[in-house]
Amino acid sequence: MSELTDGQINEVREVVEERLGELAWDDKPPTPAYDDLLNDLFTYHKPDEKQIPAYEAIRQQARVLADVIHHCCPPGADRTAAMRQLQDTVMTANRAVALRGRSYR
Predict the structure, then answer these.
(1) Residue 16 — very low, low, confident or very high, per pLDDT cuts 50/70/90?
(2) Three-class secondary structure of residue 97 per DSSP
(3) How do residues 60-101 score in pLDDT, each as one tens digit?
(4) Helix, strand, or coil (residue 69)
(5) How many domains, in total, are found in the chain?
């Protein structure tokens, strides 16, 4: 696969910027609070001592439910989907703990 040239990269940027303008829900420029929130959402948050038990409890209980799903559901796409959604649920719960309930809107 070949590398994109600077001209091609600029063309892609122009198309993305044009499309984002079309899809924007509001025309308000981002505020500093918005930038702070996005920075917070996409930053690693090292757990403090109070959060560690919450992470452990979430993982332990998810593991119990994973066993129930594995043993009660026949193999197939739905069991696979249930396990993937359980993994997503754990990640979302962990994110809630890490961000202390803060979220995008």
Answers:
(1) confident
(2) helix
(3) 999 999 999 999 999 999 999 999 999 999 999 999 999 988
(4) helix
(5) 1
Enclosing domain of residue 47: 31-98
Task: State both tokens at 20.
Answer: 């984002």
The alpha carbon of 17 is separated from its chain's Cα centroid by a whole number of angstroms, namely: 23
In a domain, residue 62? The reply is yes
22 domain-assigned: no
Please, what's the largest Cα pairwise distance for the chain? 56
CA distance 79 to 77: 6
Cα-Cα-Cα-Cα torsion 25, 28, 29, 35, nearest 10 degrees, comes to -70
Average pLDDT of the segment spanning 27-42: 78
- Compute how many other C-beta atoms are within 10 angstroms of the C-beta atom of residue 94: 18
Which letter, b or e, does each residue of 51-90 get, where b requires 16 or more Cβ atoms within 10 Å of its Cβ? Answer: eeeeeeebeeebeeeeeebeeeeeeeeeeeebeeeeeeeb
